[in-house]
Structures are given as structure tokens and as C-alpha cells.
Amino acid sequence: MSCPGKRERILTTHHIDRNTSVLPPASYTLTLDVDRKSDNAGFEGLARGRGENALIVAQEKKPLRFLETDHSHDSLSVSDSLTHRLSLPWFLKDISGLHYDRKNRRLYVLSHESALVLVSDPEGGWWVMPLRRGHSGLERDIPQAEGIASDGRNSLWIVSEPDRFYRFSRTTTS
């Protein structure tokens, strides 16, 4: 899944494998024609949702919100009810990245302007992971965090500009 241009609000699906060297034509395209008059209403985060064909799309700001899409062979649904269910905290300034961990049922919301990651828990609460020096083992602030993902080994990955990757791992205490 790629987002060729957040201003155009077009999501495309491409089938790739280990032999892919050039991005093939899209096998599926979805245009979300929402709030086109806003000066910064582009989509900034994209994550797989709970269902097999579900996507969560984050609108960066003005307003901050989530759109859930679900498509099957014969239907497509788009809803912003997730925004209301999650009740984003007042201090969140923007959304710059998004990741849904299906195994742990947690939604990770990245904000570079607020310099934090919001993590939802299955009961509907939030906990905050600051991206500032002195927190989570950071020796300096993470500048302009723009992407977030997790892997199968309980590591959280954050990419920031310019060309920096950060890996956070859970540590066990005895």
C-alpha cells in the first residue's frame, strides 16, 4: 500500500515480492475525496486495520482524525467513527505516522510536532512515549519523526528526517 501524494488523497495497492525491482502498476486504487479545501488536511499515516482488508488512514491536522476503510470484492466502506471511539488527547498537535499492531491490538500514533508516540490499549486508554532526550534511552530529541512500525520481535521502529532510524526494544526487569 502506498500513498502517492497526501494532497491528492489517493491510496494504491501494489503487489510486490522479493524479485520486484520496479513498482508495478496499482492493482487497486482508492481516492478519499475529503476536506479538499483545507490547507493542510493531507493524509499522513496509513496502517493495516483489524480486518483482513481494513486500513486506517490518519489525517494530519485540521482536524486530526482517523478514517477506517474496509473493502471486499463487492463493497467498500469508509468511516470516521474510530476518531470518536479513540478520543484523541487535547495535547496532540499533529499525526505524522500510524501503525496498528494486530498481535497486541495496539494503535501507535506518531506526532512529530508533539514529539511523542501515543499508544492505545485494548481497553481504550492511552499511554505516552516521549521522543525527547532523557526518555526511553534517548540521548537527544528525535527530530521530525515521520514513520513508525513494529516487527515480530517486540521492537518499535521510528524513522525521522533526515534519514535516521531508531529502534526501541522492550527490556525485562527481574
Descriptive notes:
By secondary structure, the chain is mainly beta. It has one domain: Neuraminidase, CATH 2.120.10.30. The chain is built from 1 helix and 14 strands. The chain has one helix at residues 81-86; strands at 2-5, 10-13, 28-31, 43-48, 54-59, 65-71, 76-79, 97-101, 106-111, 116-120, 126-130, 145-150, 155-160, 164-169. Strands 4-5-6-7 form a 4-stranded antiparallel beta sheet. Strands 8-9-10-11 form a 4-stranded antiparallel beta sheet, with no helix packed on it.
Topology at a glance:
Elements: E1 2-5, E2 10-13, E3 28-31, E4 43-48, E5 54-59, E6 65-71, E7 76-79, H1 81-86, E8 97-101, E9 106-111, E10 116-120, E11 126-130, E12 145-150, E13 155-160, E14 164-169
Antiparallel strand pairs: 1-2, 2-3, 4-5, 5-6, 6-7, 8-9, 9-10, 10-11, 12-13, 13-14
Task: Write a concise keyword list for the protein shown above.
Phytase-like domain-containing protein; 4-stranded antiparallel sheet; plasmid; globular; cell membrane; membrane; 43% strand; mainly beta; YjiK/CarP; Neuraminidase; 174 residues
Tally of separate helices? 1
User: What is the strand content?
Assistant: 35-45%
Strands, total number: 14
CATH-defined fold name: Neuraminidase
Concise overview:
It is a single-pass membrane protein. By secondary structure, the protein is mainly beta. The chain has a single domain (2-169), classed as Neuraminidase.
